[in-house]
Write a structure and sequence with these properties.
2 domains; NADP; UDP-N-acetylmuramoyl-L-alanine:D-glutamate ligase; eleven-stranded mixed β-sheet; Rossmann fold; binds adenosine-5'-diphosphate; seven-stranded parallel β-sheet; binds ligand NAX; binds potassium ion; Bifunctional NAD(P)H-hydrate repair enzyme
Amino acid sequence: MTELLTAAQMRAIEQAAIDSGEVTGLELMERAGQGVVEAIFEEWPELAGASGRGASPSGSPEYLDKEEVPFRAVVLCGPGNNGGDGFVVARLLHERGWAVEVFLYGEAEKLPPDARVNYERWTDLGEVNDVSVCAMNKGWSCDLLIDALFGTGTTRALPDLGELFWNMEDMVDCFQVEPLHEIGRPAIVAIDFPSGVCADSGRDFPHRDEHWRFSASAHITVCFHQPKLGHFIGDAVEKCGKVVNKDIGLRPSHEWRKSNWRQICKLLQAAHQDWLRKLTDQNKFGNGHSVVLTGERGHTGAARLAARGALRVGAGLVTLCVPEDACQEVASQVTSIMMKTVDDAADLSAALEDKRINALCIGPALGLDRAKPLVAAALDAGQQARPTVLDADALSAFADEPNALFAMLHEKCVLTPHGGEFARLFPDISEKLNAVPTKGPAYSKVDATREAAKRAGCVVLFKGADTVIAAPDGRCSINSAHYERSAPWLATAGSGDVLAGFITGLLARGFDPMGAAETAAWLHVECALKFGPGLIAEDIPEQLPAVFRDLGL
Ligand SMILES: NC(=O)C1=CN([C@@H]2O[C@H](COP(=O)(O)OP(=O)(O)OC[C@H]3O[C@@H](n4cnc5c(N)ncnc54)[C@H](O)[C@@H]3O)[C@@H](O)[C@H]2O)[C@@H](O)CC1
Ligand SMILES: Nc1ncnc2c1ncn2[C@@H]1O[C@H](COP(=O)(O)OP(=O)(O)O)[C@@H](O)[C@H]1O
Ligand SMILES: [K+]
């Protein structure tokens, strides 16, 4: 797992390193610039030579009469340290024989000290013009365009750069042809963030000139030390292209981490494999007994998907609790999954007398009318606090009185809302999240999920391509289905039901609520990646054996 930092945490780490005398700000800036240049040549090895089109890469005779044409870069520098990184990149490319043009947004006299030093170093080598004289065409006909305008310091809208951002987006969208520079369009590289994006929320700051874009776009975004939250949530994921992290020699301070651990958000990059390995070899009950409630006749598919997910993820037994009138429908569809007739809350309470049932899933296509009493029975304080996943109708049924639901929830519950369900249960939080941000740090999906978990008193998994999972104590993870884990085909009917089933099955196996939600969300995307486009919900659980095999389980 990688820790995702906020801008303030990054600044604190940097400041701690500088204060300890380990490193100077200027050294960090130099390493950042070197990291960017390294990342560029790793991404486009064809740019690594000193010369560009018409050049002789190997000095071979057929090229000897051709004129050497240096590669051309345009570097756009901003008024802060992000601009400072840009001046370093300009100098390093110049040293490699590149023709480099530098444009500044802001005034040189106001640059912060380290950026100012690198500005001066650059002016020994070349000119700096105002960004307003950077004619758009000039920018677009070079080999490389460096966006060093704004990084983690973006706190408000950048209206006068809207046209530039518009063109950058066009350039990124319009061509993905390799090698980029041969078709007279630049490769676009953002330093730390595409300019205009809030590092903490991944959101940009819309301006009233709505026809302009609000932030830059890039083919690759090079960040430093550790990625930031904004690289994985919000609008930024569309803008970053690909995120490359470069080490700049900062060590995470142990003390700093200890005092801030609740505020650190993690990027899920693997399942909790040690726990997944712990299938007991005793008997099926050793791996837990999950129960999933179905809806009425004609509405049982969602629960069957969840049950299949729970079984495949390793619960020893899975029982579907089915209303009498739907028994035939369900019986004709399931084999290894068991059935029990449960018509109402009293039946459910009786069924739950069986203490071997150690995880429950309630909500998928349950029916809004039936949901409230059944949820109350499932969460009945007279029962043992049983790990329970509440999804879909179990959440929506409480739209008119979310507090009544929160009063019944306990710490072994997991709520799995999508955006609509989240808004029904947490309307004020959703409103904050959907409000147009005007200043940074903007309220983020991480803030919203943490606040919701605290209010609900249990784990909340807020679905989406950027699924955020938070516990009431502030622990938080992001399961990103972006960049190399992009799986848009996972947005298919019933896929959320399978996820609820995965969580339930893992809870039955003894995972704690946070671990179950994290592992299930990660496996869910892995299954989708394994299957690829064309996936339907039924396919998801069937990919688990292959995913487990790949994990060496
Ligand atoms: N923190 C660190 O550890 C390191 C930071 N580095 C670089 O420094 C960057 C952060 O530098 P800064 O904190 O100076 O921030 P930025 O360079 O991102 O920009 C901040 C400046 O822009 C101004 N600003 C913000 N929004 C504006 C707007 N809408 N219109 C006009 N001006 C606006 C701010 O007032 C401030 O002067 C990072 O993104 C990274 O590129 C690197 O040099 C390496 C180390
Ligand atoms: N663009 C996307 N990329 C990857 N996963 C996605 C994307 N959009 C939605 N998902 C995932 O698909 C699932 C959809 O769940 P949900 O909205 O509850 O649908 P349903 O009720 O049909 O099951 C969630 O796990 C969500 O995280
Ligand atoms: K930038």
